[in-house]
Design a protein that fits this description.
The complex is a heterodimer of chains A (276) and B (231). Chain A is built from twelve helices and ten strands. In chain A, strands 1, 2, 3, 4, 5, 6, 7, 8, 9 and 10 form a ten-stranded mixed β-sheet that branches. Chain B has one domain: MetI-like fold. Helices cover 79% and strands 0% of the residues of chain B. Chain B is globular, with a radius of gyration of 20 Å. The termini of chain B are far apart. Classes of the chains: A alpha/beta (276), B mainly alpha (231). At the A-B interface, helix 1, helix 2, strand 2, helix 8 and helix 9 of A face helix 2, helix 10 and helix 11 of B.
Chain lengths: 276, 231
């Protein structure tokens, strides 16, 4: 009877499901840009091969990545919101913050550039021009690292952005680029995601190179006191791996095959002081 | 328009080239949603039948709850299952968050009310007189329920289709409790969100075509059974 046959097939399929990974697990909470750029697809298998750990990468906004780590739901975190990271380190939730790499943010806008940003050297000045012109600006609005930086830039510009020209997408970088492109609006993006989208969006880079646009990624270990079952040894291993010369060499060249240029600059051993 | 054409090309290429990652994602989606559907059937059919046949105070309330449960938003289930399975949560000791097992649990929670609701309706559509007749002919209560379920099996196939269709296509719960981890918990729908986020729209379109094809094939098989018996 075909019904029974189908049921038997279904059960067979289900029974063939792979058993859960047996090797010890390290949970890495991180930002979407490290995953969307493809960097972690290269680094994670390297780490697993070197150490025998299985990595579970949870790629969310930096705000959520840090909050998960602070609750002890992850073992190690790779984030890009220095000010927020430092508050977690100061209250003892995260340990041993070390710089891993940087790339940069860029201010994007439509070709027509209604607020006249082209040629601006400073991001805060560019933001002032957007506000003065009342030109549309799309914000991530999702507590991501990029959102945090955008808010810091508005603060530096001495402004409080407001609707109707200020639009909060509440979505990831890719979706936000799509909305900004559609609305012919300005936005702030990390260069890696922008490069991945140049084929799809007509937005142009209008401001770049301001030191305030530098985007620094750090690795932090999770304090085992944050919760039960934190794999502190695994977290420490992963943090060490991110700073190891072999890994940093891979970071250095990553992106050339796909984007024709490198995406990240490795900076293991440097401190915040070096980027003042 | 070119994008859609590119997407179809990409789908064909991925299928023909036998891209290993795509196949493992496809298989995982099928296994996870298949398991969740089987669990929801095992729980939902007895519960639905009992609810259809039993009379007790507050029954109306329970039936309303089940019917509301059929519209349970996956993202709500995802949130609560995540909190329960967190290391700091009550079920944290099992350490199954971000594994396929966690997705199966969440999807079973989503599919169960659908199965209960449709079973309830199917069993209630069997005339009351038929049940009384069975009992009058000397059938035990268990035998009566068994015969009624057999009688209702064709409409109940709709429960299988609705349950499976609901979970294979949901995204909110799979993303939250599975984490969309490459090679471990990446399903068709979560992979689609990721590829869209990366700007790889062709791959996302290819994945959606594969999902549609999969859902169609499963429903085709079930419909064939249903319609053959209906004749």
């Amino acid at each position: 009877m075909p019904l029974r046959l189908l049921l038997a097939l279904g059960l067979l399929l289900v029974a063939s499901a792979p058993a859960a990974a047996q090797s010890p697990v390290v949970i890495l909470s991180t930002t979407t840009s490290t995953q969307d750029s493809g960097l972690l697809d290269v680094l994670v298998p390297m780490f697993e091969k070197q150490t025998g750990f299985t990595v579970k990468t949870i790629a969310v906004g930096t705000g959520q990545a840090l909050a998960l780590a602070a609750r002890g739901e992850a073992d190690v975190t790779l984030a890009h919101a220095p000010a927020l990271e430092k508050t977690y380190v100061a209250n003892g939730k995260l340990l041993n913050r070390r710089l891993v790499m940087y790339n940069d943010f860029v201010v994007l806008g439509p070709e027509a550039d209604p607020a006249g940003l082209r040629g601006a050297k400073k991001a805060a000045g560019a933001f002032r021009r957007i506000a003065a012109a009342g030109a549309r600006f799309v914000s991530r609005g999702d507590k991501s690292g990029t959102h945090a930086r955008e808010l810091a830039l508005w603060k530096a510009a001495g402004l409080t952005p407001a609707s109707p020209w200020y639009i909060e997408s509440g979505q990831g970088m890719g979706a936000t680029l799509g909305i900004a492109d559609d609305r012919r609006a300005y936005t702030l993006a990390d260069r890696a995601t922008y490069l991945a989208f140049t084929r799809r969006v007509a937005l142009k880079i209008l401001v770049e190179g301001d030191p305030r646009l530098r985007n620094i990624y750090s690795v932090m270990e999770v304090n085992p006191a944050n919760g039960p079952r934190v794999n502190a040894a695994g977290g420490r291993k992963f943090a060490g791996f991110m700073l190891a010369p072999g890994t940093q060499a891979v970071v250095q060249t990553f992106g050339v095959d796909t984007y024709g240029q490198t995406l990240f600059v490795p900076i293991a051993g440097k401190t915040d002081e070096d980027f003042k | 328009m070119d994008l859609l054409v590119d997407g179809v090309h990409e789908a064909l290429r991925l299928l023909v080239a036998g891209d290993r990652e795509i196949w493992s994602i496809l298989l995982l989606s099928l296994q996870v949603s298949g398991s969740a559907t089987l669990i929801s059937l095992a729980l939902g059919i007895p519960a639905g039948a009992a609810l259809a046949l039993a009379r007790f105070p507050g029954r109306g309330l329970v039936v309303s709850a089940v019917n509301s449960g059929m519209a349970l938003p996956p993202v709500v289930v995802g949130l609560f299952v995540t909190i329960l399975l967190w290391r700091s949560g009550p079920l944290g000791g099992f350490e199954i968050l971000y594994t396929p097992a966690a997705i199966v649990i969440a999807q079973a929670v989503i599919a169960s009310p659908i199965v209960v609701g449709i079973t309830l309706a199917a069993v209630q559509s069997v005339p009351r007189e038929f049940r009384l007749q069975l009992l009058a002919l000397g059938a035990s209560r268990t035998q009566m329920v068994w015969v009624v379920l057999r009688e209702a099996r064709l409409p109940m196939l709709a429960a299988v289709m609705a349950g499976f269709g609901g979970v294979i296509s949901e995204i909110g719960a799979s993303m939250m409790v599975g984490g969309n981890i490459k090679g471990q918990t990446r399903t068709l729908t979560t992979a689609m969100v990721l590829e869209t986020g990366k700007g790889n729209f062709e791959v996302a379109i290819a994945l959606s075509l594969l999902l549609l094809l999969l859902v169609f094939l499963v429903n085709w098989a079930l419909t064939a059974i249903q319609q053959r018996h209906a004749r």
